[in-house]
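Section 5: illustrative case.
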C-alpha cells in the first residue's frame, strides 16, 4: 500500500485558520488534488470533514477519523465511513493499492511517520494560520517540483516528497 499525504501549506507551513483554508479556492491546486485522489480512498479527521460541509468528496471512498461516528451523515452517503483511529483505518485498508491522507493537523502529525509520499502545494504567503503541517525532514524525503504557477500574484509550487529513508 502506498500512503500519500496531500496538503496545501503557506510560507510558515500553515494549513488552516479557524477551521478553514484561508486562501480560498486555488483552481490549479483543486484540479491537481482531484486528479490525484479521484477513484481512491481518502482519510481525514472529523474537523476537516466538517470543513467540507459534512459532505464526502465525490468519486472517492471517504474515511473520517472520529471518536464518535455521526450516524446522520453516515446513512446519507454510500461513500462515507468512520474509523476510531488512523491506525484502525490503515489496518482495514491494507489491501488497497494506495490511499491519500488529506488532513488536518492532528492526522498529518501521526500519518507522516507512515508516509511513502507527500504532495505539498506551497503558497508563498503568510496567512497567520492556527494549524500546521509537520516538518518534512530533507534527510528522509527527497523533494521534486511538479508544477509552478501564480495565484493572485502569489507564487505557488506543487512539490512531491518521496521517502528515501525509514527511520
Ligand atoms: N491546507 C490543507 O491542505 C488542509 C487539509 C485539511 C485540513 N486543513 C485544515 O486543518 C484544520 C483541521 O485540523 P485539526 O487538526 O484541527 O482537525 P482534524 O485533524 O481535521 O480533525 C481532528 C478530529 O479528528 C478526530 N481524531 C483525530 N485523531 C483521533 C484519534 N486518534 N482517535 C479518534 N479520533 C481522532 C477527532 O474527532 P472527534 O472530535 O469527532 O472525536 C478530532 O477532533 C482546519 O483548519 C482545516 O481547514 C487544511
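Designed sequence:
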Amino acid at each position: 500500500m502506498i500512503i500519500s499525504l496531500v496538503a496545501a501549506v503557506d510560507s510558515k507551513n500553515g494549513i488552516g485558520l479557524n477551521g478553514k483554508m484561508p486562501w480560498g479556492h486555488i483552481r490549479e491546486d483543486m484540479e491537481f488534488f482531484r486528479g490525484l485522489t479521484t477513484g481512491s480512498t481518502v482519510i481525514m479527521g472529523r474537523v476537516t470533514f466538517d470543513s467540507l460541509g459534512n459532505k464526502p468528496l465525490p468519486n472517492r471512498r471517504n474515511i473520517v477519523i472520529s471518536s464518535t461516528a455521526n450516524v446522520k451523515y453516515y446513512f446519507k452517503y454510500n461513500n462515507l465511513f468512520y474509523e476510531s483511529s488512523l491506525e484502525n483505518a490503515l489496518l482495514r485498508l491494507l489491501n488497497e493499492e494506495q490511499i491519500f491522507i488529506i488532513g488536518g493537523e492532528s492526522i498529518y502529525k501521526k500519518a507522516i511517520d507512515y508516509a511513502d509520499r507527500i504532495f505539498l502545494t506551497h503558497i508563498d504567503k503568510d496567512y497567520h494560520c492556527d494549524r500546521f503541517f509537520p516538518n518534512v525532514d530533507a534527510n528522509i524525503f527527497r523533494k521534486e517540483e511538479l508544477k509552478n504557477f501564480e495565484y493572485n500574484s502569489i507564487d505557488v509550487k506543487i512539490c512531491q516528497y518521496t521517502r528515501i529513508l525509514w527511520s
